[in-house]
Amino acid sequence: MAPDTINYGIFPDIFPLNVRDLNLTIKAHRSIENQKKMRILVWIWLFSVLKIAFSAKNCFCRIFVCAFLCFSWLNVTMAKAQENSADIENWLKLIRADGIGPVTFAKMIKYFGSAERVLGASVSELAKIDGIGFKTAEKIASTREKFNATAELELARKLGVWLVKLIDERYPPVLKRIYDPPPVLYIKGSLGRQDNLAMSIVGSRHCSLYGQEQASRFAHFLGSAGFTICSGMARGIDTAAHQGALSAGGRTIAVQGCGLGNIFPPENKKLFELISESGACVSELPLQAEPLAVNFPPRNRIIAGLSLGTIVVEAALNSGGLITAKAALDYDREVMAVPGKIDSPLSRGAHQLIKQGATLIESVEDVMEALGQIGEQLQEHVSAAAAQADMKAQESLF
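Above: the chain sequence. Below: its structure as tokens.
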């Protein structure tokens, strides 16, 4: 895709639709820069006051100043926490209303300026938004208060799950650039800057031993090279990919097709715990959402959206892995496929992708080559990791 036509998502005031609109990005980030400057000024003021306090000869004066500062800091912190809690509650109520998906949600926030204003808007005001008719507006208005966001946040706290909004700085920037990012992400574990360099590995639940070995092998070496491995924690290829990344001491992200309060499949409970300790388990669904079939195609777009590229290992023609691959293509990400036996139904999906232009990969070096400049920079790390793995394999023979 040409540089001047890159699509950076549905929030053009956060990411430009083309390079000629960079001024929009400057405006959007100017407020963030102002906030950073304000924080610096506050810290300078704080240290100045503390310096004066501790240079004072009167002990009572020191105690009074320190107590005043602590009280002020506590008030500011509590006020900010309450404001954030109210804001996330409004986002949860809105996204759970009938008739609202990620794209419609973004339109409403952009039109009204905040979720709170959307929740207080009349049916006629909602109907003014492009693409929302009167019937949809009525449906939204009648269901926007049905979700118990307060109870959801309390349950999240008990489960150790944190929530991040699309406009938050902690939201994954790679995912933010797709045209339909989840407005709210539930996260068990941690997401960091290192996860911007991620590859997804997906495929059949009913895979062969060959498929498991290839998924684990690619995940292991990519994890050793510094990639975060993203998959769906399903049986088969997904599980092998997560385990391969963990075996390399790497990071991995599991995107679930149910709420993080329900672990699916249940036999992966231990894997869920391991991933959340050294990576993250992620979902856009309410904590108690069941693993319904309708939830998995939207889940697959998140897997693709979090990744620079998608590797398909053993997928039948009706496999969900092909949905992930299609989403990756839609988001202008790399799609790669591992070839299999020509007479196996499990190979047909991957082979079809190769016929349609996906990169055929037989080694991690092929992955690096497909990724271009990023791959070249990491090539030496992969070679070193492969050499180390070979040495360990040889040592185990003796």
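The mean pLDDT is 83.
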